Amino acid sequence: MTMFSVYGTATRSRPPERAQLRLHVTFEGRDRGAVLTRTIEVHRQVTEQARRHQESGAATWWGADRVQASPFKEYRKDSDTTITKFRSSASVTVRFQDFDILSAWVTEIGALEGISVAGISWELTQATRRAAEKTTRQDAVRDAVVRARDYAAALGLGEPRLEAVFEPGLRPHASGGAATQAFASRAGAPASQAPDLKAGDVDVTAEVSADFVSD
Q1: Rg of the Cα trace of the chain?
Q2: pTM for the whole structure
């Protein structure tokens, strides 16, 4: 009887159903009060638009943190002396399901002073993600079976029999592993450079290891 262990992997790609947009509102200046006031004004403007996008159905959720200000030192030009300035910032996050509205809003909002696009995450809905997880787990096990059969055939052995299947990190006496499911999105150009956003597919990946025996 021969025992051998194999890996099984699988990846399924799905078009994104949600896009989580992260915006930063930041202002700097010598006057702390003026910097805070300007940041609060723009932050309120952005959050009001985010609320309207949710009410219209273009977005499914939005959130924002509080405006904060902190001092920092800055060197005077061509000098060893410093001056104290203040930086005030806050972030706004909006999860869109209408990508056309998202693209238009990124163009509109990007023209406002003090706003920068921190990033966009392309996502799946919970139901789609769970279905994809199930499918990739099953595919990963099938891949392990195919690998086991290939090795058994190369060794002149009979049909391999499964002894055990392990998710990453659960094999006894083995070092820790990655999560059983991995997600990655493939996007086009950064949002700050491309108002015409191109959504990349979301990849769902699963991995297992399995022990087989064969005569």
Answers
A1: 26
A2: 0.78
